[in-house]
Amino acid sequence: GGGGATIEELYEPALIEQYFMSKEDDKIRKTDLPERLQEAFAGRVMNLSREDLLEEATWMVRTEHFSASTWLYVHNPNEEVTIEDEDEPGKMLQMSELQRAAEVERRLIERVHAVLCFVRGVTNDDIKHGPVVLDKEHGEGEEDWEREKNATPMLDIPFIARYRQEYWRNEMNEEDLWSVLDHDATWSAILKRRAQLEELFRAVGDDEALTMVGRARSDDELTDMQAFYDLKYIAQAAEREAEAAKGLKRPVRVSRYKTCLDAKLGEMAEAFCIPAGDLAGNYMRWLSSDRPDNPVDETADNRRPVDPDEDPVEMAIKLVPHAELHGFRDAGAVLAGVKYVAAKQVAFDPKLRREVRMRWFKDNGCLTVRHTQKGEESGEVYHLDMLTWREKRHQKVSSEEFLEMVKAKEDGLIDFSIRLDERDHQELLGNLRDCYLLHPRGGGGVSDQAREWDRLRHEVLEEALEKHLYPMLEHGLVAMRIKEAKVFVGRRIKEAMEAMIRVAPYTWRPPQADARPRKARAIMGVHLAAPTEMVVIDEWGEVRDFLSIMVDVRENHRQEMKESDKVKISDFLQKNEPDVIALGGGQLKCRTLKAQLEDVVGRCQTKEYLERKIEVVLVDKNAAYKYAHSQRALSEFPRYPPTRLMAVSIARRLQDPLRELAGLCVDRSEDALSLRLHHLQDKLDRSERTKYIHRAFIDVVRDVGVDINLAADKPQVNQHTVQFVSGLGPRKAQELLQIMRTKGCAYFREQLLEDESVRGLMRRTVWTNAAAFFKMTKNTSMWNDQMSVGTRIDDDDNVVMGGGGPRGGGGWRKG
After folding, report:
1. Which of 111, 243, 604, 718 has its CA 20 to 30 A from that of 80?
2. 92-96 — which CB contacts under 8 Å span 24+ positions?
3. Separation between Cα atoms, residue 455 and residue 452, nearest integer Å
4. What SS3 state is found at 543?
């Protein structure tokens, strides 16, 4: 306020973005909503009602897949099956497959609806949101306190997964909760795009199209309507494009379709073809009729074309004088243009496109792969098996295989197309002929002129399918398969990351039979280099001592270590007494060094330098390399060489994998993206990979909690997991730890709210989501004797859980 320089003036934009110092970051930090939900909902349609979310839940269940979706498929409608009673667990109900599918769908819609109400903070009397009701003295004022007390909080996904299980269990699993959040983004995009199209069709007064847009429930259907608008209202579309490009120098696009209309070729198409909408209506009525093998009946509801009085060539010749001004110089060119206009209109009709997509292309589309010259000359081999795919149903190609095929095409090794096989194509073409031609079955009484007009109509249908409709449907199908494949790969990335971090901190068991495992008080990390670095860390992960030594190690596991090196290492072990030795693995020489260190440990035990024989463990060192070359390591140990920093990270990785690997996600660091978690991970962009990697950390932190006092006391080592607590994120976690480092550690959770700064950061909503995942322990140097040891959930947290949350400690599970 004193006219000083702003953040934007003092720092580079890249630094402002990296350390979350922008005005947008500050707004997210101060808003009492879960940080990651604020980011997720940015740009989405908000202020949806409970009824709106019920419509969205119905759409999700009927178009997307959840863990119970397999029960929605009915093979034998009347076959008797059993299903557990929803109201009386353990009681089984008898019903048909069809009834079970309807019941499962109802339950799934109810579950998804509840989750949507939770994450969007929409009041639903059928579920318990459970806002925290704090004491009035914790508020900022009477008005604020009353308003926030009655607010419906947005609940973060990990909180719902842990403490609202009764609203989603059985029909959904934990991964489905994340899927709901992702599908909500898709639905929000559909709503926004639908609103834009409704505005366009309302402007031109097309009520029928406006109704169709209102019924659209997918991107494909909206794309159909957008294409229909651009074709039918080509002048308005051109004006809209010109308005968007105003002030920009862009090349002028010349539409062949508009050129044909300017040449009045559309008038000839209208003279002998029925409108595309009538073709779609004839086809849909024919599909629903009792006699699908017969041509469309001559009824009042069905439309038939009318043959002009002259043959096609004569009619085209009359159009040549005017059409020549637009480049159509003879009757053949005119007829080709007429067929193009009619074919475009058929292919762009939204009803017909939907029917062909859903009844034919989606299930029966066949994949054919062709080699390229580069693929033949290349030394790559991963694409060779794909060359055997000839008219293979695309559904028989797995998500990973499809993404590999797309990669091979991008590399120029193959090319592929998706079409209907010849039998399906001819069947579809025959069906459309019956609905489009005047005399689809011919006959002896049909004149030659009538046959010529029907032949022209047949060519229109072939061109519409082969040159327009099939390529557009292929484009949409490939995009859908790529999207599904990326979700599949993303989940595999999450599983691989979770497998790395869902590992308990290292413990060792004393030799006594009834002894409990003990936490390692000291761990020695070893990195083989020149010189080899050995570092000992204490129970908090801080470096206690280190040793640099030139160890002669060869690729021979029987090689003996030099006596002088044995003495140095023995003295180092005797001095620090580590509970375990963590050796960075990955090379054959590491196996040799492991055997040598085990020999030294045995020698120390024989000489009673050590009370017991300690274990030598090989540890993956990929993350250690990232740490050694990071800004985080440089700020913590500015004088350490990279090899010693790797030894530090190796020891910490064994001590607590979650804590150490979370350091790869500090600020906006992309170190975690360099971990090889899936062979197709590069097909996902950085934001997608980051999303799935962070979700792995969020899920594990949800199960084990975070020692908030230790994170504040030893921030260099322990602060990185706080950002993954439910309701928090990097901004709020950074601010909370800064406050705690200033004020000191907390005795109990509610003590955090006694500080005005914390209340400004975590009011009712964020506190509701985060508090249950804070572990309050005395494992810090700031702790005094008056504080008692806590767990992740204690008696004080009944208010957080609404009185009904599970109780327990912060122990590891699935370890």
Report:
1. 111
2. none
3. 5
4. strand
Give the C-alpha separation, 439 to 453, whole Å: 10
* Structural tokens at position 82: 């059993």
The span from the CA of 151 to the CA of 139, in Å, is 14
Q: Hey, what are 325's tokens?
A: 């001004």
Q: Give the number of residues written for the chain.
A: 815
Q: d(Cα 718, Cα 707) in Å, to the nearest integer?
A: 8
Q: How many CB atoms lie within 10 A of CB 166?
A: 11
The confidence score (pLDDT) of residue 694 equals 95
Phi, psi of 151 (to 5 degrees): -75, 150
User: How does strand 774-775 pair with strand 366-371?
Assistant: unpaired
The confidence band for 275, taking pLDDT boundaries of 50, 70 and 90, is: very high
Which of 199, 212, 206 minimizes the C-alpha distance to 280?
A: 212
DSSP letter at 361 equals I
Peptide bond into 531 cis (omega under 30): yes
Burial class (CB in 10 A: 0-12, 13-18, 19+), 795: exposed
Q: What CA–CA distance (Å, rounded) separates 387 from 380?
A: 13
Cβ count within 10 A of residue 458: 16
> Distance (Å, rounded) from C-alpha 152 to C-alpha 49?
13
DSSP for 669-703, written as a single string: --GGGGS---TTGGGS-HHHHHHHHHHHHHHHHHH
Distance CA 474, CA 481 (A): 10
Using alpha carbons, select from 369, 349, 389, 342 the residue that is nearest to residue 472: 349
- Nearest-5° angle of CA 211, CA 213, CA 214? 65
| Of 630, 634, 687, 618, the residue nearest 662 (C-alpha) | 630
Angle between helices 50-63 and 174-204 (to 10 degrees): 110
Q: How far apart are CA 702 and CA 651, in angstroms?
A: 25
Q: Is-contact 194 209, C-beta < 8 A?
A: no
Which of 268, 271, 262, 255 has its CA nearest to residue 338? 268
Place of tokens 């790529």: 482
H or E segment at 548? Answer: strand 543-549
Choose the weakest-confidence range: 369-378, 479-488, 751-760: 751-760
**Which residue type, as a one-letter code, is found at position 48?**
L
Under DSSP, the state recorded for 170 is T
pLDDT in tens, 321-334: 998 898 899 999 99
CA-CA-CA-CA torsion sign (52, 58, 64, 69): positive
The answer to whether the beta carbons of residues 702 and 726 sit under 8 Å apart is yes
Compute the distance between CA of residue 110 and CA of residue 68 in angstroms, rounded to an integer.
Answer: 13
The count of other CB atoms within 10 Å of the CB of residue 161 is 25
Residue 635 and residue 615: Cα distance in Å, rounded? 32
Tokens of 708: 């908030």
SS3 141: coil
140 contact partners, CB below 8 Å, separation of at least 6: 759
